[in-house]
Amino acid sequence: FVNWWKRKNQDDKTTRSLKQPSDIRSEDIADGIEGLIGNTPLMRIKSLSDATGCEILGKAEFLNPGGSPKDRAALYMINEAENKKLIQPNIGCTIFEGTSGSTGISIAMIAKAKGYNAWIIMPDDQAKEKYQLLEKLGATVEKVKPASIVDKNQFVNLAKRRAEDFGKNKEKNKKKLIDGDDNYERENSIENNEATGFFTDQFENLANYLAHYQGTGPEIYRQTNGKIDALVTGAGTGGTIAGISRFLKPLIPSLKVILVDPPGSGLYNKVKHNVMYSPYEAEGTRTRHQVDTIVEGVGINRMTENFNMSTGMIDDAIRVTDEEAIAMARYLAKEEGLFIGSSSAINCVGCVRVARKLGPGHRIVTILCDSGQRHLTKFWNDEYLKQNNIYPKEEEGLNFIK
Ligand code: PMP
Fold first, then answer.
1. Lowest-confidence segment of 157-171, 174-188, 268-282, 285-299 by average pLDDT
2. Among residues 45, 122, 241, 335, which is most buried (max CB within 10 A)?
3. Which among 77, 237, 310 is the best mutation to test ligand 1's pocket, defined by most ligand atoms within 8 Å of the CB?
């Protein structure tokens, strides 16, 4: 009888937990791919938490459908352009962006979902799988030589120009090029259902920041009940760090925000000494120094509108080497099957440094931006690393972090 009773009880529980069709609520079903963006889980990174005595929490942004937090920024920028009537679906409008990859992938995905074309311009030294993914998503991919932001063919500048030169607005755009950019919105707006070209401009477009101010930040607040001691993350456009910290800081005044920066980026010096100065004195995006190219998606040498929104919000900065990032990614894969990309890896190194400084018992939140799957041919490729004179070492525990 006891066994029968136990089984019955179990069956009842199982039946109760299964949803009957009439119980399925519309919020349980995502409306297309856009419906899967955001609301990512926060995970306790067990090995780092156990090793440091702090609770180290990673926002699993790699679970967005396009595989990174850039889905949020791309969706906000495209929605805003639609609301301003700068683009309209299914009439051949084309979205242009200059990107190191993640934003392009997000734009290509959302463009398909909504009825737009995507034209993505990228430096030619990024991991191969990013170009392949973009092509599979039907985007036009244009590769350019890495160049300084003052170069007219630098990937961001070229994306802007391509958008201006696009399609039926040629006549107007000619005029605009002569007159300057003042009337960008009016001159690019849709008239007579003409296809337009739109430059999303992730570095300067504050819809990027807003996606994190209205999405990622509130989600982290809810998921932690506002109990966080430090936020530790890197910046590419700055949208993520600015949006989250601007939302959280007024609600949690004791929160420390710490920027993690790769070698060759000027943001570390901007935070520490209020000067935008790169160790390699480069202009534009990170100097293409040998080992600098290994960590992708973060680090920049100019002030962007999105990073500027973090003014007064960032308390400190940490530099992380490529070697440390590589060792961290391998450590997490080995210790707990967490397979991350390069920008997530520098974030995790930053978390350990901050945990050591704060001491046990604190809660630290970071962003797990993308998966290692997007970095198989570079960051996760021992052959490639060898060619760049990097030989990942097996060290005891987290001893590779000095
Ligand atoms: N990680 C990856 C993989 C990225 O592509 C980017 C954006 N380029 C970032 C982090 C940085 O995010 P943000 O642009 O919001 O500063």
1. 174-188
2. 241
3. 237
